Amino acid sequence: MSASFVPGATPARTVRLIGAPTDIGAGARGASMGPEALRVAGIAEMFTRRGLTVHDTGNLHGPNNPCLPPQGGYRHLDEVVAWNQAVHDAVHTALAAGELPVLLGGDHSLGIGSISAVARHCRATGRALRVLWLDAHADFNTHDITPSGNLHGMPVACLCGDGPSALVSMAGHVPAIAASSLRQIGIRSVDEGERHRVREAGLEVYDMRYIDEVGMRAAMDKALAGLDDHTHLHVSFDVDFLDPEIAPGVGTTVPGGPTYREAQLCMEMIADTGRVASLDIVELNPALDVRNRTAQVAVELVESLFGKSTLMRDRG
Question: Where, by residue number, does Mn(2+) bind (predicted)?
Answer without folding.
Answer: 108, 135, 137, 139, 238, 240
